[in-house]
Amino acid sequence: MSTPAIDVGWGAVVQRVTPRLNGLWVLLGLIAVMALLPCIASPYALMLMLPFIGYGITLLGFNLLFGTTGLLSFGHALFLGVGAYTAAALTSKFGILSFELLLITAALASGLISLVIGALCVRYTRIFFGMLTLAFGMLFHSFLFKFYSVTGGDQGMRVLRPLLLGMEWRGGKTAFLTGPFYYYTLLLFALLGLAMWRITQSPFGLHLRAIRENANKAAYVGVQIFRMRLAAFVISAIYGGIGGTILAVTTGLADPELAYWTHSGNLVFMAVLGGSGTFAGPAIGALVFVLLQDFVMSVTQYWRFVMGAVLVLLVVFMPQGLSGTIEALVRRNGGR
User: What is the tally of structural domains in the chain?
Assistant: First the structure.
């Protein structure tokens, strides 16, 4: 007797087994385009891209906490401040100019601080987690603002030009930032993006998504909820510290406003704008935010009102963000 043919749906099986590379390719494609910008763009446009790189790296970590784990932090700018002031202290007070050492120290400082803060915050979820992170962010901002003898107060701390790979690059500040520093940080962005993709596609990332969907069921099957959330919090903080270091070197200043709660709101805005449900969405949101803010500020002094209106329209009409909306349109047209 012949065996009847059975359609096992191998296409669906392969899609489940093989990780989707769409988000990774989008991010790497964006970075590849940015690598060509110095050939065609003005120095001003390249200077705009440096904050985007810093925010892009920060949002890779922020999205691990928000998009993958489901924990929304309202004080994540704290770690931008940690990275910036670490770079300022090392360069201006200790004379350490190695950019690699600045990055490593900022990552370690952010990781250690987040380990303490996260141990208290990740025990809670939803609004309680958000309020706790906001409180710690405000405490850190108050410390930066009030302890003038240590942090420089409202004037901040100066960040000296670092050495890249132990080499001192000659020329003016603009030539340094739009030349070797630009390509260095762009390569760092790509490497950290690959590392974050590996994290999200690993069993660790699967556990985080399980926690986001249903923490009780995840705990029932043996997932260590507290440890996983704390690990995600620490990793996101390390990415934030690295991003803060890049922002501080770009501006030459570590400012207490980097750690202010409105800056944390900007990070949430970028993630929602690009689409926190996708891998490359928050990075795209950072790019659009930087360009849009620069344009609106050049047109009107009421740029905050315009940005707020954009956020309202985004939440109402495009709740999935730019990336999620485009992906949905592509799937719909593909289905037709």
Answer: 1
Give whichever of 5-14, 44-53, 297-306 has the largest mean pLDDT: 44-53
User: What was the pLDDT predicted at 58?
Assistant: 95
- Write phi, then psi, for 245 (nearest 5 degrees): -65, -45
Tally helices (H) and strands (E) across the chain: 16, 2
Residues 6 or more apart whose CB falls under 8 angstroms from that of 332 comprise none
Domain that holds residue 185: 46-273
CA distance 244 to 185: 12
Decide if 76 contacts 238 (C-beta within 8 A): no
CA gap 271, 220 in Å, rounded: 31
Residue at 334 is within a domain: no
Contact partners, residue 261, CB within 8 Å, separation at least 6: 74, 75, 77, 134, 137, 138, 141
Q: What is the pLDDT of residue 168?
A: 77
What confidence category does residue 14 fall into, taking pLDDT thresholds of 50, 70 and 90?
very low
In a domain, 150, yes or no: yes
- Alpha carbon distance 191, 214 (integer Å): 31
